[in-house]
Write a structure and sequence with these properties.
This protein has 30 helices and 22 strands. It has about 700 residues and is an alpha/beta fold. The structure holds 1,4-dihydronicotinamide adenine dinucleotide.
Length: about 700
């Protein structure tokens, strides 16, 4: 018997159309599902008994996750892409022109093509449930909504609100979706179907919903041609500043929306389709899609290969050190991980400050509408603190975030051991100290692991889980699972100096200071690398990290790797004078009310005036190749488990431009032979630190690449 994705039941003139793609946890619209849906819709259209339709999902917590991404990835040519998108548009058109009202009863994710389908329905009811999320994430994959999303969303909710969603690839919770007018009504999941049927009957009897038109501002900006022109030009300007020429999708989306509003739905759909076809076979989209796949795969990766032990669930967490990092880790663990958190420090004042920081981060989450008011109180109640060991007997995982000092950390680890139960895992958030050196003083080194968070903890999406040679597999999988429960993407990393992120970041930052010493102005370095696609340039990044922190890290890497990682002389002098970067208001830049400017006094410290003009290429080649070469070496040493993990770590932890795919995809796109040649040229000009890594040379010889 053929498994079908659709089940139709007609009662009292209302057809219940249930989508439940067999063998999958979520519904996606593949070609076969599309054909089936088209045929069912044709039947419903001609069936005179049917007066209205309720479209509902048979999945537990998912409505429609989107179009089938595998079919999208398989596209080889522009024409194939055009065919695929036109098929999608035709399906949505069938919903739009059924001639009978359709009520979409939405519970769970309704994204991309799924949302575009329901936009063509007559009425949308969503459940008030955290799993219910609506959005058009296409631009995040380098494409645009092209099954009518760029047409129907602005027509439904107004131009400005629609652009806001489409251009950011934004996903809305149920309440936001109601407020924006994306859905008409919210209900409790238990009554979703009943309410949908009731509405379907009313619609069949001729009732039509009245929708708000957005008041005077809507009148002036969203529906008036002059106002629209202003909205479009503002949107273009804002996007151009943001994407710096690297991401073509948002501008294409603006054009598709504008074309449709100017020339009508059909012309708009054609414009959408043409842009989609072009973008979907371009490099930017290909790289962004690979990053999406890699992060999705990492979400399922337990962190060990072969036999996978069961992860030990963490219900009680303790964080030692209530400072900058400890308090932030505690806040995120409570808010996202929903665990009991005990925060410990040496003095009550530090504990109180730490708890306040954690509470503030929860408040910020509320302000960003990530949590509800009721959640806020529940999450706050999960947090407690003190200077003693109370609560530690219950603890499943301890994360240490005390001063960056081996002896202090060892003392803490030895003391913790006597206070916790035998199977408690002890993790360090150190950014530079080898985990093995901390573990060697403990009685249970197999339960010691690194959990390296990045600052700011609530925003940075990555955690490095660092293993020593002795870390037990069950400890690894438990730390990985907890990192993930905190909402982070987690990569497993070997205990080598700098771990992964700082290891590849250091040569890049050091090379930028080298160029500074050669007379290249700070603005030139920062602007060139931002234009290359990094979120901030290297010098500004050092100010963000903190010069004291950067200096400590650089010293460790210099000890380990010698001249290849020679930090800049002047930084020590800067930190001694209290120039610590943004946190002290002064680093390479001076920071004042939301603005920063280069401090000219820096050039005296550097010992060289900013008098050298260099082409952009000089900057990008030297800085990126310093990083690429180190990435190749580190992967070869097994610091990361795969090129995939390395790429994701670089994109999420370093800010390597996502549209370039990460260091290894970038190396593949250049070609290993060409990369070696470039490195050899750089070595001749600038010194042996650019000598190509042996593994890269070997790869070039066999014309190999990192990804098949
Ligand atoms: P911090 O100085 O803000 O906080 C350290 C806290 O530990 C202080 O509140 C101190 O009172 C407390 N402390 C010191 N000894 C203690 C002990 N024996 N028992 C209990 N509490 C003790 O430092 P921060 O920046 O939070 O760094 C903490 C750790 O996180 C360090 O290992 C650092 O390398 C690491 N890290 C820091 C990052 C950053 O951007 N600041 C990023 C990633 C990791």
């Amino acid at each position: 018997m053929k498994m079908t994705a659709l089940a139709t039941k007609i009662s009292d003139g209302i057809a219940r159309l249930e989508l439940n793609v067999p063998g999958e946890t979520v519904n996606t619209i593949s070609s076969s599902v599309r054909r089936e849906l088209e045929s069912v819709l044709d039947d419903l259209k001609t069936d005179s008994v049917v007066r209205a339709v309720v479209l509902i999902s048979g999945k537990q917590d998912n409505f429609i996750a989107g179009a089938d991404i595998d079919e999208f990835v398989a596209l080889k040519t522009r024409d194939q892409a055009l065919g695929l998108v036109q098929d999608g548009q035709a399906l949505v058109e069938r919903l739009d022109t059924l001639g009978k009202p359709i009520v979409a009863a939405i519970h769970g994710a309704c994204l991309g093509g799924g949302l575009e389908a329901v936009l063509a329905c007559t009425y949308r009811i969503a459940t008030e449930h955290p799993k219910t999320q609506l959005g058009l994430p296409e631009v995040r994959l380098g494409i645009i909504p092209a099954a009518g999303g760029c047409q129907r969303l602005p027509r439904l909710i107004g131009l400005r609100a629609a652009l806001d969603i489409i251009l950011a690839g934004r996903t809305l919770g149920a309440k936001q979706a109601l407020r924006r007018g994306v859905v008409d009504e919210l209900v409790h999941p238990a009554i979703l179907e009943a309410v949908a049927f009731k509405v379907a009957r009313r619609l069949a009897d001729g009732w039509r919903p009245k929708r708000r038109k957005g008041g005077l501002a809507g009148q002036l900006m969203d529906r008036n041609p002059l106002g629209q022109r202003l909205v479009f030009s503002r949107a273009r300007k804002k996007i151009r500043m943001k994407i710096r020429g690297h991401y073509p999708a948002p501008l294409a989306a603006i054009e598709a929306v504008q074309h449709g509003l100017s020339y009508g739905l059909t012309a708009g759909l054609d414009c959408e389709a043409a842009h989609f076809a072009e973008l979907s076979v371009g490099d930017v989209s290909r790289n962004l899609v690979q990053i999406f796949f890699a992060t999705t795969a990492l979400k399922k990766d337990p962190g060990v290969s072969g036999d996978v032990p069961t992860a030990k669930p963490v219900e009680n967490l303790a964080v030692i050190g209530a400072g900058f990092m400890g308090s932030a880790i505690a806040g995120v663990a409570a808010a996202k991980g929903e665990v009991d958190v005990r925060l410990r420090d040496t003095g009550l004042e530090a504990v109180a400050r730490g708890l306040e920081n954690a509470h503030n981060s929860i408040k910020a989450r509320l302000a960003r509408k990530r949590i509800a008011v009721l959640d806020q109180h529940r999450i706050r109640d999960l947090l407690s603190g003190g200077t003693d060991w109370s609560g530690f007997r219950r603890t499943d995982l301890v994360i240490e975030a005390v001063f960056e000092d081996l002896e202090v950390k060892r003392k803490v680890f030895r003391a913790v051991e006597d206070e916790v139960k035998p199977d408690c895992i002890i993790a360090s958030n150190t950014s530079t100290i080898p985990i093995g050196r901390i573990a060697e003083v403990t009685k249970r080194p197999q339960q010691v692991v690194g959990m390296h968070f990045f600052s700011p903890v609530d925003k940075m999406p990555l955690v490095e889980v660092i293993l020593t040679d002795r870390t037990a597999p069950w400890v690894t999988v438990s730390a990985v699972a907890f990192g993930r429960a905190m909402g982070k993407t987690t990569i497993v990393v070997r205990d080598r100096p700098g771990f992964w992120v700082n290891r590849i970041l250091a040569p890049y930052l050091i090379e930028s200071t080298q160029m500074l010493r050669e007379g290249v102005p700070i603005e030139k370095l920062d602007e060139t690398m931002a234009a290359f696609g990094f979120p901030v340039g290297p010098i500004a990044l050092m100010d963000e990290i903190g010069l004291d922190v950067a200096l400590k890290g650089a010293a460790v890497l210099h000890d380990a790797f010698g001249d290849r990682m020679m930090p800049m002389d002047g930084i020590g002098a800067m930190t001694e004078r209290g120039r610590l970067g943004r946190k002290s208001g002064r680093g390479f830049y001076i920071y004042g009310r939301g603005k920063k400017k280069v401090d000219p006094a820096i050039y005296d410290i550097v010992g060289r005036a900013p008098d050298r003009a260099v082409p952009d290429d000089d900057v990008t080649l030297r800085l990126t190749y310093a990083m690429l070469n180190e990435a190749a070496r580190a992967l070869d040493e097994g610091v990361v488990r795969s090129a995939r993990d390395g790429d994701i770590g670089a994109v999420l932890g370093v800010g390597f431009p996502g549209f370039r795919g990460g260091p290894f995809r970038y190396l593949d796109s250049v070609g290993s032979a060409k990369a070696v040649e470039t490195l050899e040229e750089l070595a001749l000009k600038y010194g042996s630190r650019f000598q190509p890594a042996t593994c890269l040379r070997n790869m070039a010889e066999r014309n190999g690449q990192y990804y098949e």
